[in-house]
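seq:
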Amino acid sequence: MDGVTALGLTAGTLTTIAFIPQIVKAWQSKSTGDLSWGMVTTFSTGVLLWLIYGIWIDSLPVILANAVTLLLQCGIIALKIRYG
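struct:
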């Protein structure tokens, strides 16, 4: 693995795991009122587009980071729907 790929994987890991505390907080508090639908949908759309881009350019760090982030965002969306 070259340095550029390692850097991309590290950056992707850090930005992806940043969503875990939000999901944990929403799950524990059963509240997502402080998350706006505008932010959630805009961010999720952007992540989906980054995933498509990563697939298009065949970039493993971009694909992995955005695939996992999109799954986490789906969790946030599910909690937002459930707890409003």
